[in-house]
């Protein structure tokens, strides 16, 4: 297939381009940076939030699918305001990219969603599946973030004449996804809660890219798929393992109230949210299995490399 990727220069975008090329697909990389170079892809320069300029940039092009992987997260978000532009990319950006899909004749649309869309709360021990409520408002400051994830999914599912698929990724790690954590650890700016924090379902970026290719080729329109590994762990375990593998000093263990003051959004995600997410549907329906079912091997392999 010929595939347009928005976010091809991001953390998941680069391994996704490589995975698509390896699977025999042709890639058009949408970027607003005129200097950007994406190995294995032809670049198309446009700002996704500039609708008219975007449609001019793709005029005359054809493609079979559009993949939305845009975020505005160059570092781990600490405050709720750090998520504002990503929210816009998931709302207005999705609207514009669906117009791109129609303009280039694409019949498939895959959008990035995330498992915190199930709610920034403690979900207990039961693994969450795609049948659980997603995108519900809960009266907290995280509601706009959840609403943006719901928006991108619903726009994709309801796009007439287009098979829209949502991939609910776990928290990313590995490859460039671990760089921000290691940089913060080396600078002593990444503490852990004294109790280890909440449990999260994770996914290595290489496995996330492989799952995206599988969804492109085998996914069913109107469906969401959880893309996570087999080993949910606490934020404390993940951060400490990064420090051990990178050879940095251990992160400081701080009381929850102190983390909430310094990084209110990160505290909401790292302390208040706890979830175990099932990947059974993606395994059964997409024929995908994570090559790294747990986190230790992936962290050590990438940081060593």
Structure description:
It is globular, with a radius of gyration of 19 Å. It is α/β, with parallel strands linked by helices. Helix 3 (84-104) links the parallel strand 4 (65-68) and strand 5. The model has no long low-confidence stretch (mean pLDDT 94). The longest helix has 21 residues, at 84-104. It has helices spanning 13-22, 51-57, 84-104, 143-157, 179-186, 205-218, 235-246, 256-262, 264-272, 280-286, 295-304, and strands at residues 2-6, 26-31, 42-45, 65-68, 108-114, 163-169, 171-173, 192-193, 199-200, 202-204, 223-227, 233-234, 253-254. The strands form 4 sheets. The chain has a 7-stranded parallel sheet, sandwiched between helices. The chain has a two-stranded parallel sheet with strand order 7-10. A two-stranded parallel sheet has the order 8-13. It has one domain (2-299): 3-Layer(aba) Sandwich (Rossmann fold).
CATH superfamily (homologous) name: NAD(P)-binding Rossmann-like Domain
Largest sheet: 7 strands, parallel
Strand content: 15-25%
Task: Write down the overall geometry.
Answer: globular
Layout of SSEs?
Elements (H helix, E strand, L loop, with lengths): L1 E5 L6 H10 L3 E6 L10 E4 L5 H7 L7 E4 L15 H21 L3 E7 L28 H15 L5 E7 L1 E3 L5 H8 L5 E2 L5 E2 L1 E3 H14 L4 E5 L5 E2 H12 L6 E2 L1 H7 L1 H9 L7 H7 L8 H10 L1
Parallel strand pairs: 1-2, 1-4, 2-3, 4-5, 5-6, 6-11, 7-10, 8-13
Antiparallel strand pairs: 9-12
